[in-house]
Amino acid sequence: MRYFKSAIEEPLSYPPGYGTEHKWTKRSIFWDLPYWTTNMIRHNLDVMHIEKNVFDNIFNTVMNIKGKTKDNLNARKDVEIICDRPEIAVSGDRPGSMTKAVYTLDRDQKRKIFEWIKSLRFPDGNTSNLGRCVDLNELKLHGMKSHDCHVFMERLIPQHLEKCCQNLFGMH
User: Fold this and answer.
1) Which of 64, 98, 109, 143 could lock onto 105 through a cystine, CB 3.0 to 4.6 A?
2) Mean pLDDT over each residue of the chain, to the nearest integer
3) Structural domain spans, the chain
């Protein structure tokens, strides 16, 4: 391995025959990741960090956290083109023209969820104290490790969604 140049040493070099003899012409989006250029085994993706990114995106979108939500004007335009969801379609080209999505929570709902997270208790060694990650003043989560996000997605979200679906849709 020491004889091969790393991506940092030759960031813009292409393999021989690039674009003419083979079809590899697209640059992967993984090169935008901060650790990707120094990653020696690029086919070995870190599942826990990917899961943390997915959790952060879903949680920040549902909680409608300013600057971190993925619910923006371009996403709404894509939904309008791809899906039949008139209740979240945009009416203009201004972000102010977006209606509140059904999947986002209001301040009282957020407060209840954050208080629930703060009250959770786990056995020692299972996960960190999630109550320390909760900021009730700003209604945000901070400092969660990838394993905490894994536990949240695998154990807590399904349990909470089951209760929410029963209340919202009358499901048993």
Assistant:
1) 109
2) 78
3) 50-65+104-172, 70-103
